[in-house]
């Protein structure tokens, strides 16, 4: 019954009228602005979100069983309708359609929760399900009857039970409501004066889960304490890629196509590998190494003073020329990013151990993993190490053209 209902939509409702919005006036369309990750921000984004909800409720029949069953032509119709009311970036089409799809699924869940679930088992109240709710006059009676039959079937009951079990495992619920991570980022920027790339997702994850009365839920508090501890220690400072502070605190790897603490429309490629993100990481790394270098220079200065106080006969035969710093020479930065297939596909960070400028491969130590499942260009077959995630701390051979020195990146982004 359900599969037939999906195919029936191909010919119906092609000229269905969409919603109107009060913000649309003689002054023209609302212009949507975006942050550096391509997510809508500002008060106009609130109007866009509201409009997407209206479109989802009024222009898409509730009898489609799943969002993928909604055809390409209808989705294009939705996109064109949004563009008729807003000035949006053409690149945001996929994001906009996904947002409408999410709001459509939420609307169907609301209908089930408020009108079907509470009445389906009572013979008297079940009579109320013969007609659509008065609150939604745009719902067609035949669509409503089919929707009720779908949501009261045994197949749906089993699917619903499985979904509830999965949902029960979610311990770290955010309290953003309609604000979203993009507007939360803007809020933090206004409060702190930080740039967008300086606000990491660990900070956003924490802020999104703060209670209105202050503090955190007990499960969230455990992760928050780990985040704070990691940020105070060297192990968490400057960690880049998917194994960053938040991943370490949560203790689980990132899922493909999703970035926790950034909202549903930010992809791993956008967050982890944007030039600004890499540059910010490089700046943090440089500060860390400068701090260590200064500490070593202080220790060397103390050692020099100690040697000068010892008699020449009892000294270690160190000449001043061996101890003096050469102001014309800077310490050689051998840190590097490691890529596979092509130089833009960065999967790890490491240190160059040997460079003869002659060989096709370099010897590197892999230190930080950015893409755990990426295959090594030269696997360690004897140790059964084939993937980047298993090679942390290992000395590897890496194709020269896929090794990008960090010092070169700093020059490139400066």
Can you give a write-up of this model?
With 414 residues, the chain is of the alpha+beta class. The protein folds into three domains: 2-167, no CATH class; 180-276, no CATH class; 335-413, no CATH class. It has 14 helices and eleven strands. It has helices at 2-8, 43-59, 72-85, 93-116, 141-151, 154-168, 180-192, 201-208, 218-232, 245-250, 268-272, 275-308, 320-323, 406-413, and strands at residues 30-31, 33-34, 40-41, 86-87, 335-339, 346-354, 361-369, 375-380, 385-387, 395-399, 403-405. The strands form four sheets. It has a five-stranded antiparallel β-sheet. Strands 1-4 form a two-stranded parallel ribbon. A two-stranded antiparallel sheet has the order 2-3. α2 crosses α4 (93-116) and α12 crosses α14. It starts with a helix and ends with a helix. Mean pLDDT is 79; it is low at 10-18, 20-26, 311-318 and 320-324. Residues 1-15 have a biased composition (Basic and acidic residues). It comes from Helianthus annuus (Common sunflower).
Number of domains: 3
Q: How many DSSP-defined strands?
A: 11
Arithmetic mean pLDDT: 79
> Helix tally?
14
What is the SS-derived class?
Answer: alpha+beta
Q: Biggest sheet, open or closed, and with what strands and sense?
A: 5 strands, antiparallel
